[in-house]
Structure formats: C-alpha cells, structure tokens
Amino acid sequence: MREQLRHPLAALVVAALLTAPWVVVFATGGPDAYGLGEMTTVAVSGVAVLGASFLLAWGAETAEKDVPPAFAIAVLAVLAVAPEYAVDALYAWTAGANVGTARGAEAANLAVANMTGANRILIGIGWSGVALFTVYKARSSRDPAVDQRGGLRSVVNLDPAIATEVTFLLAATTYAFLVPFRGGIDVLDTVVLVGLFATYIAIIIRGDVSHDTDHVGVPGYLQELGKAARVATVLFLFAFSGAVIYTAVHPFAHGLEVIGENAGIPPFFMIQWIAPLASESPELIVVVYLVNKARSTAGFNALISSKLNQWTLLIGTLAVVYSIASGSIGTLPFDEKQAVEIWITAAQSLFAIAILSNLRITVWEAVTLLVLFLTQVFAEFAIIRTVAEPRATELSILVLYAYTAVYLALAAVLLVKRREAVARLLRATVQAARSAFGASAD
User: Fold this and answer.
1) Cα separation of 107 and 428, whole Å?
2) Average pLDDT of the chain?
3) I need a labelling partner for 30 at 20 to 30 A (CA). Which of 118, 206, 339, 440 fits?
C-alpha cells in the first residue's frame, strides 16, 4: 500500500484532489452560491492554489525534455503570476473607464501600488527568503549550488545561464527610473518594456534543450511517456493549473483583504501588500518545491524570470488596458506617492541586480534585502496607523525617498566593486543573442 502511495500517479491524484473543491465551487456559482464565509473561501481557494502550484511545477519540469529549460521556466513564471496581472488589469480598466473622476484617479493609483508592491515582495521576501531557505535546506539535501561557509558567509551559486535574465532585468530597471518623470505609464513604456520581454523570449526559446537533469518522481515518470502523450500532458498541466490559479487567487486575496480590514488594517495597505502577497503565492510555492528537490538554481531562475516579466509585461500592459477601457490611447496617471513607489521599486531592483551580478547571493546579502524590505513596510504601516492625513502621506513619501537613497547607495557601491562581473554578464548576454540569431560569437 505504501508503495502505491509513492507512485508518481498517486502524487498527481493528490495534487488534483486539492484543487477539486474549488473547481466544483467555481463551476457551480462561486463562493456566494454556497454562502461561504471569508475564512472558508480563503481555505478552499488557498488549498487549490497549493495543488495547482505543484501541477504547474511538474509540468514545467517535464517540459524541459522538449524545450530549453529557460523557456520552460519563463512559461511557468508567467502562469504563476498571471493572477497578479489580472488584479492590476482590473484596476487599470476601472481607471480607464472612469477617466477624469475621483474613482478613476484612485483606481489608477491602486494599479501602480499593487504593481510596485508585488515587485518589491518578489525580491524582498521571494529572493531573500528562498536564498535563506536554500542554505538551510542544503544542510540535509547537499545542494551542489550551496557553499556552506558558516553563518552569514554561506553562498548560493546561481546558474551562469541566468546571465541573460539578469541583463534584461538591468535594462528594464534602468528604464523604469524614467517612467515617473512623464507622470504616467503610456504607450512608449509599453513599446519599450514589452519589446524587452519579447526580445528576451526570442533569445531563450532558441537555446539548447538540456538532457543533463535527471528528474525523479512525477516529472521523471511523465518524461518517460511518448512525445505526443508527454506534450499533451504538459499542455494540460499548464492549462489546468493556470486556470485554477487564475480563478482561485483573486477570491483568496480578497478574502485575506476582508479579514485584514476587519482586523483594522487600512484598505490601501492591504491592496499594496496583502493582495500581492497572495497573488505571488503560487510562484513562491513552486520555488520552495524546487529548492526542496535540491534544484535551487532552477528555483532562482524562476524567481528572476518572474521579476523580469512583472517588471516588463506587467507595467507595459497597464497602459494598453487603460487605453482600451477609455476608448482612446491614453496615459495611466498616478500621484506623487506612486511616483516615489516606482522609484523605490526600481532602486530595490537595482540593488538586487548588483547582488546577483557575480551570479551568487550570500546569506548576509539575503538578510540585507529582507531587513530593508520589512523595515520600510513596517515603518509605513506605523505611520498610517498613528498619523492623520495629509501628514501621513507626507511622512510616507519621506520614508520612501530615504529607502530609495539607501538602495541606490548600496547598489552603486556593489556595481562599482563588481564592474568586471557586470561586464561578463553583458558579454554572456550578447553571446547568447548572437548564438540565438545565428550570428558569429566573435
């Protein structure tokens, strides 16, 4: 009996069963049709996200037999953060449908706040937390990517192939600093940022298919299928898990928002931090799963790919959704606070890129990312809980400027110190592009 439970098909069935209650609820009218309370909705949808995240991870690992691993990871990243796109698109649509009104202005600011919150969570909690978990897990898993040097000096080494992602993320981050100067997100931002992502995909999809990774468990079992059956299975896993995540995360996030608001947490704070944390949960679950299998390099590849597609596609498509809703090509506006939110998000991204420029992250660097993120969020939370408007917003902006300066100063020090490593990243990316498009590597 124990052997049967260990069979890969049993694991697939268990993961699918985790999604079943939500699939039934969603297909037959949603939580309202059953009179589900917020706690029950959060539990049912949250368990479905957990099961779908495993199915998504298995699909991506299985796909590595037929497509370049970087492309499989990129698809996984897009599907895992699709709920975040949906939430932001909803706010952008509301802003476009209510141009010139207070509701439209508020929705536009919420779209930017949700986007910046999601991006900072991905680095502040995702990158740092996974690095710390990887070092901790390596004590028993013997992960070859980890150098145990003791305490804060332990290192997680990244896959050199991730140089392309880091370079494109650097380009997107550099451009992001310019966005607030025009007072909104417009069609130029769409062209530049979506263009960067399209170029990145065009490069990695032409990469080599790797057969060096020996998968076990569900991915290993599925890779033994014939090609037609294997491809069909991967497409089904992607489609099913993506649909479950897409439909379940919003009720999950909304339920958490209501619970938080009932506990006295301000709505704007919930939308910027709690909702994105919920929508990022599939990605974090997938990465923890990969690290748990001693595939920390693949896990970090997924995190970096997620950051890249959120920092390009997510921002770039906001202006498109806004323009469609408004009926004409327009600019998604935002106020001074959201402009500073974009700057601090870009500054945090630059600091994180500087850390990864030598293709490794130490424990002390991960702790620095985590501490800076948490102290800034808690500082803002303390302000909005104890200071009345408009003074609260003024103090929040000062805090954001201060942390932006800290991030930029730390990034500048590291980038100067590691300028040769940055140059190697750029050369590796150019070589990958030349190889992808059939040009000489010289």
Assistant:
1) 41
2) 85
3) 118
